[in-house]
Description:
23% strand, alpha/beta, globular
Amino acid sequence: xxxxxxxxxxxxxxxxxxxxxxxxxxxxxxxxxxxxxxxxxxxxxxxxxxxxxxxxxxxxxxxxxxxxxxxxxxxxxxxxxxxxxxxxxxxxxxxxxxxxxxxxxxxxxxxxxxxxxxxxxxxxxxxxxxxxxxxxxxxxxxxxxxxxxxxxxxxxxxxxxxxxxxxxxxxxxxxxxxxxxxxxxxxxxxxxxxxxxxxxxxxxxxxxxxxxxxxxxxxxxxxxxxxxxxxxxxxxxxxxxxxxxxxxxxxxxxxxxxxxxxxxxxxxxxxxxxxxxxxxxxxxxxxxxxxxxxxxxxxxxxxxxxxxxxxxxxxxxxxxxxxxxxxxxxxxxxxxxxxxxxxxxxxxxxxxxxxxxxxxxxxxxxxxxxxxxxxxxxxxxxxx
Length: 384
């Protein structure tokens, strides 16, 4: 089983914290949709299973961005039909559309409910007006609530994004943000700490003193509140930033974390086939020019043994499935296993990691520190 990710590189306006690839000019949108369709066809043989001389089955189609909801329903349906035309698709695939509340009018939601889209991922970020203004989001608090009210009438499988650690957000405000999401009966929540990426508007606002710098201690406390409140409400904390009710985990994202193959279509999109990783050029004009010349604007790298080990450590520790010590030994050898156990010892002693049933996992105390712990377990010095 594998997945198709389609990157829609357009946004109405730039959020202050975002460093993803997008353009706020829609001038080349029609051209881009045709180029995306063409790339879907150009790459149809990449999912060949050499053992069976047949294509792997596509289980998920994911529209990410940017803001995929700036596409019309006809454009979305056209791209989905191109996937079906060029790949084998499972009978009931998970087809996700990332969307912003300002694009989700009652009429649009009704239209989408009649399309092949069966999962919405809605970028709420916060229900507070001051937070949305500070982040330069295109929607307001009323739109956020109204779109969830409408979306839950027609869609069962909905995820929403919330950001914590926002300067000025008290613990009480954060609890209220979570509670508002829970009141709508949403079955999946993705939540991230506000991070300051270089060269973003947020970085400049902090440098000029217009916005306070996010504090790690505040973010850490918000994370603990999030975990506790969602677990009390029947959510499973299945990945560091993702919480889902049973049967509502994101199949698309779980495939990434479990090391399944996926093809990334569109400018800046990434791909992985188990052996090599690829990424498309992050420039709309150069991407369009290459596709129009029947060229794939992609760079690839073959992953070394230690690259694959490091990726497994990073993704394994972030998920409910942990890192299988048996798999480490089988796939990478005893040298890697011994190294891992040696490096993990201090975290085991400090009750930040635990080993149960031959699976290495962060403890509740270690969860917020997962990425830092993982980097200490990476194997960096092998000659390859």
